[in-house]
Specification:
This protein is of the alpha+beta class. The protein contains eight helices and 21 strands.
Length: 334
């Protein structure tokens, strides 16, 4: 079935981006018919929509953790545990967590773009919609890259981004099996290790890099999708990531990115049962502030699509693509 077909079987209808009740919507809207469940939709249809549109909102289906389990299991071969703070673990067996439970607004970002195992796809399922505020906002990174001033786009195209973080003993133990790898081991990490290691003064750091404008999962179009806006506008950091020449991303570039993103950023006002699926290589997301975070419950899962080639920017072996990947964490003594 073509992704732009008027009907998705007999259980839902497709409203393509730019049509229907919201001409500014950048996502494909799939609306339930009758007593349909999200699990009635052919997974190949959803993948085709992700390929062509990058974002899909399933609406009018009942809220159900079981449906989320099934949809994510059909589409993905693995998922990553999100160790970001203030998340509840809703279903450990299927790696389903809540989103951040705070009230803050969040700037645009792809999920886990600060790490080398950035997931392919994000699933957000509304179990309880907020009473006021709390909309998830999304922005097409391909459209954003195209909207940048030519000089800023050219500058980004010339550079890679370097993410440099400390390499504490528990990180080294995870990748090398020892907290004290020698220089030969550091110079040739295991095939599953996504970092290279470098000494900065008397400290050891782990480093990975990505293009400042990258190819999307399903094509050659260049997208803006990284940690820059979240680091600058939420964490107040200009040093993570850095350009490949060691400089912070220039302030005027960041201002131009913000300005170009503003008219392309669209809110998703949550309804119970909504399931938002994003190509995490193309779409960024954030959120508006929440009046009462206790009245909002959004379940999430961050996965790796089946039958998709491994990330060529990553290591030869990518364990996060099979099963539930739990990133390295400090060992807590009891």
């Amino acid at each position: 079935m073509a992704p732009d077909a008027a009907l998705c079987g007999a259980m839902a209808r497709l409203i393509a981006p730019g049509s229907g009740p919201n001409p500014g919507q950048p996502y494909a809207l799939v609306v339930a018919e009758g007593e349909a469940a999200a699990t009635d939709i052919d997974p190949a249809f959803l993948v085709a929509l992700l390929r062509s549109r990058g974002a899909v909102l399933l609406r009018g289906f009942p809220p159900s953790i079981e449906q989320l389990q099934t949809v994510t299991g059909r589409l993905c071969s693995g998922s990553v545990f999100n160790e970001s703070p203030d998340r509840a673990l809703i279903d450990p067996a299927h790696n389903i967590q809540s989103v951040n439970g705070g009230a803050d607004a969040f700037p645009l970002h792809p999920e886990l773009s600060r790490e080398p195992w950035k997931p392919d796809v994000c699933f957000f399922h509304c179990l309880i919609p907020p009473d006021q505020g709390g909309e998830t906002v999304i922005c097409d990174g391909v459209a954003l890259a195209d909207a940048l001033p030519p000089a800023v786009r050219a500058g980004l195209e010339r550079h890679r981004l370097f993410y440099i973080q400390p390499a504490p003993p528990w990180q080294l133990a995870h990748w090398f099996g020892t907290e004290t790898p020698d220089e030969a081991m550091l110079a040739a990490p295991p095939a599953s290790c996504p970092y290279r290691f470098m000494r900065i003064g008397d400290r050891l750091a782990r480093v990975f890099s990505r293009p400042a404008l990258h190819r999307t999962l399903f094509g050659d179009a260049r997208a803006f999708g990284n940690f820059i806006l979240f680091a600058r506008d939420y964490l107040g950091r200009g040093d993570f990531p850095l350009l490949d020449d060691g400089r912070p991303v220039p302030d005027d570039w960041v201002a131009a990115i913000r300005a170009a993103a503003a008219p392309l950023t669209v809110p998703v006002a949550w309804q119970a049962g909504d399931l938002l699926i994003l190509d995490n290589s193309r779409f960024m997301h954030g959120r508006n502030p929440i009046a009462d975070p206790s009245a909002r419950l959004i379940a999430s899962n961050f996965g790796y699509l089946r039958d998709v080639a491994r990330d060529p920017e990553g290591p030869a072996l990518q364990p996060w693509r099979q099963g539930i990947f739990v990133p390295p964490r400090p060992v807590v003594s009891v």
